[in-house]
Amino acid sequence: xxxxTDVAASAAASAATPGLDEQASNLRMAVxxxxxxxxxxxxxxxxxxxQIAVLGxxxxxxxxTLSELAERERVSAPSMNRTVNCLEEWGYITRTPxxxxxxxxxxxxxxxxxxxxxxxxxxxxxxxEAALSEFTPAERVTLAQAAGLLARIADR
Amino acid sequence: xxxxTDVAASAAASAATPGLDEQASNLRMAVxxxxxxxxxxxxxxxxxxxQIAVLGxxxxxxxxTLSELAERERVSAPSMNRTVNCLEEWGYITRTPxxxxxxxxxxxxxxxxxxxxxxxxxxxxxxxEAALSEFTPAERVTLAQAAGLLARIADR
DNA sequence: TATTGTTATACTCTATAACTATA
DNA sequence: TATAGTTATAGAGTATAACAATA
Lengths: 156, 156
Prior knowledge:
disordered N terminus; DNA-binding; 7 helices; Arc Repressor Mutant, subunit A; mainly alpha; homodimer; 3 strands
């Protein structure tokens, strides 16, 4: 059993009650594909997903150091440094040396950065709203509940 | 209304019956956060997301041409060609010229590929399975239904 | 002439290692 | 000596343009 060779038996069993492994696999594939599609909807085509994520986080939580941003986005410090360099060059963030610890540099959203992250969220949601409008109210309830559940998983 | 400036009124209204805009925003944030967390749980470091996705799709739907795979994964044909080259080099897929249209090449999962995608999915989803196991059966049904709905949106 | 697959080339994002300055 | 940020360099993934084979 469960050797992966007896496809027919596996399919028959899962048709009745999908195992936790298949539920997980289905959910993973669906979410990853959906998020990739969602990410494709951007206000500024020249901005990467990582750059947008940093701007969004700064708007939500205020200024952070480079290390904090790197840890938050789960990338290396040099990688985040490159991201921040671009954002600074475009005028979307500002770098300010910390007063108490001069090794640190506080990275904050500029007015232009605030504008662009707002516009990006608006465009992204416009596409998503159009998609949601084609669902039934019951289906939208399902998605709303699922959103809460996904958030709970992500916070583990 | 709905200008985005009257935050209090908007919040009050959405508390009763969330508008489509807030549903979209909530769903977007939840999915992006979840997918980032999910991506961080990569048990198999030697294979990329794209490679795993192709193997999974071939296992699920059988052989496909290069163009079909590229369209499915929303990448360019050269990019998919590179992905398929790696998978072929590793012995996970086979290329077979089509009999009726000799321009086409059928890409199919090999036995080794079938094994590795099974094992990869198992390792990768271990974290997600653990998370799902803490939900009630009803909540898991909600997530399963939502997965189908998200897939429909992504295919738009 | 259009389509399918492939190669050539370049760009972006990412990582590790090494360097600078502060603590 | 340790930490925060940065620079140098390399690897992986992606894209567009150009090419070969077939329809």
